[in-house]
Specification:
Elements lengths: L12 H17 L9 E3 L57 H7 L44 E3 L7 H6 L6 E3 L2 E3 L11 H13 L12 E5 L5 H6 L5 E6 L7 H8 L3 E3 L14 E7 L11 H9 E10 L10 H14 L2 E7 L2 E6 L3 H9 L8 H4 L25 H5 L4 H22 L8 E4 L6 H6 L5 E7 L6 H6 L4 E4 L12 E7 L1 H4 L9 H11 E10 L2 H10 L5 E9 L5 E9 L2 E3 L1
Length: about 600
């Protein structure tokens, strides 16, 4: 993920109220936002296939799309009037984290391992095939960096977190806004103080996390992602995740704020990230039982950590002496010692281990049958839908580099890497010229087929963060992306992504659609376009580069998805003319 400017420290109450007035005033002045008026689809369209020619009380309507709950059918046929619109109650539809579907699966799931929190995609015929509408009174999101501290209440209209976590300063209601003071369960006085304390603990009071070698962090059970937000001033990139559980909409809050996050859970399968990719894994009251099941979950942390990386554990077993916390602590100490981790600090409710780069220790403990060493063949597989392994892998110490060595192993030469890097630097500058928007209008970006991360690297000079997605059906270039200081995840676009609707301002798709054109039902161009529409924000951009036949088909279909579309002639990597589609999702709403 690319970084950007953020405010330096937590606000005082007085400053917060001044900012609150500024945000509300700026909205009405059109300063923090662009055009906030949606085009309306009247409820009458659900029973009338013709478009309404008369304007609604709040705005014009010229859509033929019908409001109708529609499921995916085979063969897939798009109505001439356009893709149907889902009823308003489906405004937060997340296909692979659908509570109703998961409830059907409960008898077959391992609830003791929290398998119900993982991805469970319904069969094709049970997936909706209609455009997900915005909620009532949805507004164009507040722009970064103001959005770090304030978002519109109507965009995430859920009060549970404010009610149960307000005392820990996760989030507070402020009129039409949600205010995020920067607190958390273990840092209710603010993330900056907590982050500095972690820096002191990792450097023996001599520096901060960055000087401790921390550049990429995995935040487990991230809440509203304030920890990640306040790491940005240190130039530290964070992959934040949390499940869709009782802390309702925590990831939606994070993304609405403009902080990189995704829905996920560490339960029975490997996380969708490469081995040896993070300098720190952070758990602050993350509600994960690391000590259970022979430590299979903490062995997954070991897989994800780079040699000499840190595991930060801020939870009751690290400091409480009552109940069964001492027993849990002893189990954790035994597990981490067996993996040759070293406890370097334990104070103020936090314990920190370092994963030592000590292969001799691991081999000795394997001989003593304290651990099992993973088969090297298993380690090389992309971690997508891979069951957790009850073993410890011997991590290769591959330092970050301008040309990641892991790419050479899969046949990507340094010349090809350099060509890609230079090409996207030129193209990204052209994109901003052609989009004709202020830099602050784009914050959340996804590269749906990231290759080696050249697009994200070029975006790093802008105030955005980028989710680099590497399709699980392609070569594993994600390790190389992490080695160049970026972050991302594996995914298969035959399935919906693990995020809320309306979470990205820009989607970039280079040769993605042609890659999936022969992958069968569920992977059709129309299926992927529907998912793009679900996760892009109103007025968000979708930039598509692909074969001419694909470009032509998307151009024909785009109006049926309520996208505006323009073509631009650019050049490909080899200086040949290439037609690029710039699609923009219309801001529409149901009335």
């Amino acid at each position: 993920m690319g970084g950007g400017y953020v405010f330096g420290s937590a606000r005082s109450g007085q400053t917060a109220m001044v900012a609150l007035v500024l945000v509300v005033g700026s909205f009405f002045a059109g300063y923090i936002f662009g055009n906030n008026a949606p085009i309306y689809i009247p409820q009458a369209s659900s029973s009338n296939s013709t478009s309404s020619s008369s304007p609604s009380p709040s705005g014009p309507s010229d859509f033929a799309n019908r409001i109708e709950l529609t499921y995916r059918r085979t063969p897939l046929v798009i109505p001439q009037r356009g893709v149907n619109v889902c009823p308003l109650e489906f405004n937060e539809y997340i296909p692979c984290h659908n509570v109703t579907y998961v409830q059907q699966l409960l008898p077959s799931l391992n609830l003791s391992r929290r398998e119900e929190l993982e991805r469970h995609c319904p069969p094709l015929e049970q997936r909706l095939f209609c455009l997900v509408p915005p909620p009532k009174d949805y507004k164009v999101p507040i722009r970064w960096p103001t959005s770090r501290d304030y978002v519109w209440r109507s965009n995430v209209n859920h009060t549970h977190l404010a009610e149960v976590k307000g005392g820990q300063n996760w989030v507070h209601e402020q009129g039409e806004l949600w205010w995020f003071p920067g607190g958390g369960t273990h840092f209710k006085h603010g993330a900056p103080e907590y982050i500095q304390r972690l820096g002191n603990m990792t450097t023996n009071e001599t520096g901060d996390l960055r000087s401790a070698g921390v550049e990429q962090v995995l935040d487990v059970g991230c809440g509203v992602a304030s920890f990640a937000a306040y790491l940005l001033p240190l130039g530290i990139q964070t992959m934040s995740f949390a499940p869709k559980d009782g802390h309702e909409n925590q990831i939606q809050f994070a993304l609405e704020r403009g902080i990189g996050a995704m829905i996920s859970a560490i339960a029975t399968k490997q996380m969708p990230y490469p081995s040896s990719s993070f300098d720190m894994v952070h758990c602050s009251r993350c509600r994960v039982d690391w000590h259970e099941n022979d430590g299979v979950l903490i062995k997954e942390v070991n897989r994800l950590l780079r040699p000499n990386g840190y595991f930060v554990y801020s939870a009751p077993p690290a400091y409480r002496k009552d109940k069964d916390f001492p027993l849990i602590w002893d189990k954790l100490v035994n597990l981490t010692t067996a993996m040759c981790w070293k406890l370097i600090s334990r104070k103020v409710q936090t314990a920190i281990w370092v994963k030592q780069d000590d292969q001799a220790c691991l081999m000795k403990n394997a001989e003593l049958e304290l651990i099992t060493i993973c088969d090297s063949k298993d380690v090389s597989k992309p971690s997508w839908k891979v069951p957790l392994r009850d073993c410890v892998d011997i991590s290769e110490n591959t330092p970050k580099a301008s040309y990641p060595t892991s790419l050479r192993k899969i046949g990507i030469s340094e010349d090809e890497f350099t060509l890609d890097t230079n090409f996207w630097r030129e193209q990204v500058n052209r994109y901003w010229e052609l989009m004709k928007v202020n830099r602050t209008e784009v914050r959340n970006v996804m590269d749906t087929n990231a290759f080696v991360g050249g697009f994200a690297a070029a975006m790093s000079s802008y105030p955005v963060w980028v989710m680099n997605v590497v399709p699980a059906t392609l070569n594993d270039t994600l390790s190389g992306i992490y080695q160049r200081g970026l972050t991302g995840a594996y995914h298969d676009w035959c399935e919906p992504f693990s995020t809320y609707p309306r979470t990205y301002d820009l989607l970039h798709a280079d040769k993605l659609l042609s890659h999936y054109q022969n992958h069968g039902e569920g992977c059709l161009l129309e299926d992927i376009m529907l998912e793009m529409d679900r996760i892009i924000r109103p007025q968000g951009f979708i930039i598509i580069r692909d074969e001419e036949s694909i470009i032509s088909k998307v151009q024909d279909l785009a109006p049926k998805f309520l996208w505006e579309v323009e073509t631009r002639e650019l050049q490909d990597k080899y200086k040949k003319a290439e037609t690029v589609l710039f699609c923009r999702k219309k801001f529409w709403a149901i009335v």
